[in-house]
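Can anyone check this?
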Amino acid sequence: MQKWVRKVVNMMKSEKLYASQGGPIILSQIENEYQRIESAFNGKGSRYVQWAAGLAVGLQTGVPWIMCSQQDAPDPVINTCNGFECGVKFEGPNSPNKPSLWTENWTSFVQRYGEEPFIRSAADIAFHVALFVAKNGTYVNYYMYHGGTNFGRTAAANVITSYYDQAPLDEYGLIRQPLWGHLKELHAAIKLCKVPLLAGSYETSSLGHLQIAYVFKGKSGKCAAFLVNNDNTSNARVRFQNISFELPSMSISILPDCKNVAFNTAKVSTQYNTRSRTVKYKFDSMERWEEFNEPIPIFSNTLLKANALLDHMSTTKDTSDYLWYTVSFQHESDAEAELSVVSNAHVVHAFVNGAYKGYAHGGKHNFALENPIELKNGTNHITLLSVMVGFPNSGAYLERKTAGIRSVRIQNRYLNNYQWGYQIGLLGENLSIFTDNGRNKVEWSRFQGRHSRLIWYKTVFDAPGGNDPLALNLGSMGKGEVWVNGKSIGRYWVSIHTPQQRPSQTWYNIPRSFLKPEENQLVLVEEEYGDPLGITLDSVSITKDAKY
């Protein structure tokens, strides 16, 4: 860590990027939310915090260092707040010489497969920003202000490909109203208060049981006030400096001159908009699709072998979501049996003698696949595909976390200690058949329309005209990954639904910079029974909502 931090800081210094050198960097962060796991390391955790702070300060950047969500950040490192309601829950700076900083104001939250998006209203976000400033907060950073895309395999465990799409600027960079406009008005109102905020005295006064005034008075006589109504059920009529004000429930009125209301957090005047999509291209021609069936490995053609069930994560080393487990054994007759597989990865697919026999998925804990199978007289091949939908990226002792297949049983026979063969990744992945150089390394065939499990699909398309963002509608597919011109636009898992019986994500962002005018190559690997003929390429735009 020391080598890495020094490397980054020296790169910044060499380009004169710190404010002390005339550059734009005004803050640097060391560690992130470490306090959440610190206790797991007993006394070593607090010693590490001291060491990390000393490392950072010793690099002499000339700008302050911060630790997010670390209440005991050692001087002079500044402790800051991450969360939804830092004006309510932040304990404040741990020293009078430190400013009050809100480093992550969560405009939405990480969304996982099977979950609905977390939506915060414009009024709620504005209320908590205004409250933090009213309580002498000096800095608010939005996380995120602009949504994004977890391209490739960059999403963490079970996290969807879209990231913070509910932000003021969505995944495509389009304005999301009324959130964007309401926050713009809030920022303008706070800016009107800048003189007393920056150089004035600070006092509070009660306006009622759940109402309070935060007042800033400058030496020049300038005054700004934040009138807060914390009652979440009723409006309140209050008097401030002999003037009557009506405060909507759970709202803050900003008075840049202590007399006139410039903004109220609950009064959203910005017109709503709606994001719409228009089909630009349909991939519904069978003649334009080709397919390649992913081969199912058996024990004899694997290179990696072990007399145990190996851990998925430490075996693949994050080079693939997929790890094949395969074993062969003798059986003395044709028979029906039950296959039982216990896994704590995310998905498992089972094959017996090359035939598909079942699928199961889980989450953080063990889950089981239990299916009837047919054994034949002689050698039988059991092949299991373990799938991780991203790796865990937070928590104590990450290096100790394990995942993968934990137990395999056929009737009363446990196969855990048999000799197993392993293949890291799919053959199509390992040959990069989604690229120009790799696509001819396998023999593609004409699309058959059978919608098989574990199959690759390939087609070409021309880029639609215009400048609107583009998204691939994968509503007809199941689970897999998709590439455009060799670039992965992410994992998809359309078949897993939210409690409202809809996919967590259906449309997948294709930046126009990924495209050529003509002959763009689209490749998918489909684990389930998806139908590529239902895929469409859509443009994305916003329109004002007439009902508002």
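Reply from J.R.: I decoded it. The first strand starts at residue 28 and ends at 32.
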